[in-house]
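TEACHING EXERCISE
Course module: macromolecular assemblies
Task: Read the component lines below, then compare them to the predicted structure of the full complex.
Student: A.B.
Group: 4
Components provided:
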Amino acid sequence: MKLRYSEAFYSVQGEGRFVGVPSVFLRTFGCNFRCMNFGVDTEKDRWQQHAEGQRYNAEVKGLIDAGVHKQDIPFEDLPIVHTGCDTYASIYPEFKHFNRQAGVEEVVDHLLSLTPQGRWTQTDGQDIHLIITGGEPLLAWQKLYVELFEHPRMQDLKNITFETNTTQLLKDDFFNYLNNQDRFEVTWSCSPKLKVSGETWESAVKPDVAEQYSLVDNSYQYFKFVVQSQEDFNEVERVVETYKQAGVSCPVYLMPLGGRSEEYNLNVKEVAEACMERGWRFSPRLHISLFGNAWGT
Ligand code: SF4
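Instructor-supplied answer key:
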C-alpha cells in the first residue's frame, strides 16, 4: 500500500496544545468534507454555492475553470486560496496528481530527512513531534499508519498528533494497535466543523467517534473550533454540550478564522474574550503570524 500525501514539512506547531513545538507535518490526501463556506462573506454567496449543488466554492472553481489543475507546476507553486478549505489541493480529485504516492520506506526517509538530526529523539533528549494532518488523515490510511509507526527508524518517536475532523471511527485493527503500544503518546486534535464551514451538524458532530478516540490508552484529546462570530461561540456551546451528554469531556480551544493575518487579526481579541468568559482555551495560529498563509508551514 502506498500513502498519497500532498506535503511533508518541518515547522513549529501553530495551533492547539503543542503551540511552538518543533514538528514534522505529514499532510495526507483526501477528505470527506469540502468546507466551502470558510471565509465566504455573505449569506447570499454561501447559499448560492449550495443551491447550485456544488462541491467547489467560487475560488476553487475559478482555479479549475482557469485550468490551474492542468498546469505542469510543482505542488508548492499552486495558488493559495482564502476561502473554503485552505488545503484544497489535498482534498479535490482534480489536484490529486500534485500529491506524491510513496511506500512506507520512502515516507520514513522523507520525514526523517526533515528533522534536524535525522531522528525523532535528539542526542540531548528533546523530541520532534509528528503531526498527521490533511485532508482528513483518518479517512483512508489507518492500516498504513501501523506499518509506518512500526518501522525500525520510527522507534524513537514519542509524540504523534492526529489533526482530525472527528468523523471517522478507528478500524478495530488500528484501535487495538494503538491500545497495545506504550512507545508514543497520541494526541487527538479534534475539530468538529461548525455551520460556518458549510458542513451540516448531522455530518459533522459525531459523539460516538470522539468517544472512541477517548478510549485509546496513552492518548490525550481536545476540541479545537474555528470561529468567527457570536453565532459560532453559541454553536460551540451546543456542540460541547452534545459531546458532554455522550460522555466526552475534554479541553476546548477556540481559534480565530482567517488564513491571512489581516482577517485573523480582526477577531483575535473577540475570540480571546469569549474563551475567558467560558473557561475555554485560546489557540493562536502561530504559523500565520510567523509565515503568513503559505504551503509548507
Ligand atoms: S475538514 Fe479540514 S481538510 Fe476537510 S475540507 Fe474541511 S477544512 Fe478541508
